[in-house]
Amino acid sequence: MRKSSKKRAPRGEYVSQNQLTLTGFESPFYEQLDPCNRWVRLSEQIPWDSLVSLYQKRNTPKATGRPSLNPRVAIGAVIIKHLCNLDDRETVSQITENMYMQYFLGYSSYSREPPFDASLFVEIRKRMGEELIGEMNDKIYGFSRSPSPKDGNGKEGEDIEGKDDGT
Predict the structure, then answer these.
(1) Per-residue pLDDT tens for 81-109?
(2) Per-residue confidence (pLDDT) for residue 97, from 0 to 100
(3) In degrees rounded to 5, what are phi and psi of residue 142?
(4) What is the Cα–Cα distance from 36 to 164, expressed in whole angstroms?
(5) How many angstroms separate the CA atoms of 114 and 7, rounded?
(6) HSE-CB of 26 using CA atoms within 13 angstroms
(7) Residue 54 domain-assigned?
(8) Cys-Cys crosslink for 113: which of 9, 14, 81, 117, Cβ 3.0 to 4.6 Å?
(9) Overall domain count for the chain
(10) Domain containing 119: what range?
(11) Which helix (H) or strand (E) holds 165?
């Protein structure tokens, strides 16, 4: 009996939040991503470098075997799952279908491939544990309470608890 192989999204290296640009995100559509979309705004407000650093301290990359999932994808998928109150399978489906969520996860272009199999959420939860999730929550909360950088119009940006535009 032949074992079916699962197609997975590319396992690229982590890219710092400072290296992602909205204008460079490749989409199969004619329009560029809307900078006012909630996932775009939230991706700019999350302290990704700090969260990935916490994650990697607890989960050091292995020298052998299959490369691990990009930490931003793992962390971001958990954030999406909880913000949208989704189950594991639906979270993976939503990410696969939504280019804004893929941008939030640090993708450089839209992919029709699922980021990972939904069953991997069990392992992600084990790796994170309550203590690491608590530390990440503290980082996000602390970051959201610090003064926001000014945008191009000289106005202060909204914090993480800002308006939801319904997308």
Answers:
(1) 989 999 999 999 999 999 999 999 999 88
(2) 95
(3) -60, -40
(4) 10
(5) 8
(6) 4
(7) yes
(8) 9
(9) 1
(10) 30-61+70-145
(11) none
